[in-house]
Specification:
Elements: E1 3-9, E2 47-51, H1 52-58, H2 63-66, E3 73-78, E4 83-87, E5 91-92, E6 95-100, E7 105-109, E8 112-119, E9 122-127, E10 135-142, H3 153-164, E11 166-171, E12 177-183, E13 189-190, E14 197-200, E15 215-220, E16 223-233, E17 236-243, E18 246-255
Antiparallel strand pairs: 1-6, 2-3, 2-10, 3-4, 4-5, 6-7, 7-8, 8-9, 9-10, 11-12, 11-18, 12-13, 14-15, 15-16, 16-17, 17-18
Amino acid sequence: MNKTAFIIVVIIVAIGLGACSDSTKETSSAMVNTMVKPKSEIDFITGVWVSKDYILCLEEGTPSSCYKNLLGIASILINQKSIGVSFNNHEGGIAEINTDEEGNIFLKINDQNHQVSIEEKTLILTLKDEKSNAEKRFVKILDDFAKDSDAGIGIDLITRKIVFAGTYLVCDTDSNCRDTVIFNSNGSINGWEYGDSFDLCTDFTEATEEDYKDHVNFYSNNEFQISYSFNRETDGFSLSKNAEGEESEVLKLVRLK
């Protein structure tokens, strides 16, 4: 098939990062914006797209149990100036947009051509080669993104929104409840003594499956304060403080809404 490239937009790659740290906010790969404006034919795929299988898994799962759904192409970011691809929610790649004579759109990622289509608000990448017609589906999380956004911005947002965002009663292990706290999907917190923002670990690239451990980090004025491992329960979460490799359950978050 004779394809004609009409735009090439490149992102920063080669940012190899460790699995989630208890004291550092995770980062996938920063974006580099070019001054090239795409043609209107691709405007319909503009946005931040995240693996649909990952999102569906999070409804009842956790970041660690759903991480397998981020392997390979985890997220795609497209706007008028940039294209970003997150692999394994750990590193970035180089992408190129092509069209053929029939007007079909292709994303070329790591020298592989993926035909792009939209079906019921889902972006579908179909790998086109001699051996495979494999599909991978993505859901739009954001309509656009800022210059130099992290390639994991959509993954982080949807994970916070589905798994952790809500209003909770804070209780101790003896069921003595005291405060009400609100965790927002944008990462901000209202009424929490341990910080004003949070993030969830979503990158388990360098951990073995046996070592997968869900944890949440808390920050005040963007400075790390404390990290807790968490278990998702029917009525909320139990939190265990991370300290020198030892854990003891200290808090329970009971979901109010």
